[in-house]
Amino acid sequence: MSAANNGGGPCGACKFLRRKCVKGCVFAPYFDSDQGTAHFAAVHKVFGASNASKMLLRIPAHKRVDAVVTLCYEALARVRDPVYGSVGHIFTLQQQCYMVENSIRNLHAPRKQVFLNYSSSGRNLTEKLEVKAH
Questions:
Q1: Residues 82-113: pLDDT tens digits?
Q2: Which end of the chain is more exposed for a tag (fewer CB within 10 A), N or C?
Q3: SS3 for the chain, per residue?
Q4: What is the dihedral of CA 90, 95, 99, 101, to 10 degrees?
Q5: CB-hemisphere CA count at 13 Å for 25?
């Protein structure tokens, strides 16, 4: 993980920032040296290292894991979609839910049978049609 934890290399954040990972590094428990570097790069690009550090220090230690996950998710979403970020993804998911709900509603809509009488070639035919009730 980090020099603060296992005596290994720096955490992903310190590796990205090219600095020594000191004991008590606020990023070390959350950004490992492998995937943590890529995640921290996005967090750094969107929020900045100093702002991310300040945010984490203001949060109680038992809630920091959730905060880091949220920071990473928002940062990666913002890198993918600079205008809407995670809101664009949420909007897309809402639209998909709306479409699925409409499909389900249409499948379960009550149906009524309509009988049509018409004359064709001198014969009376009764045709049974199934029509959706609105």
A1: 999 999 989 999 999 999 999 888 887 766 55
A2: C
A3: CCCCCCCCCCCHHHHHHCCCCCCCCCCCCCCCCCHHHHHHHHHHHHCCHHHHHHHHHHCCHHHHHHHHHHHHHHHHHHHHCCCCCHHHHHHHHHHHHHHHHHHHHHHHCCEEEEEEEEEECCEEEEEEEEEECC
A4: 50
A5: 26
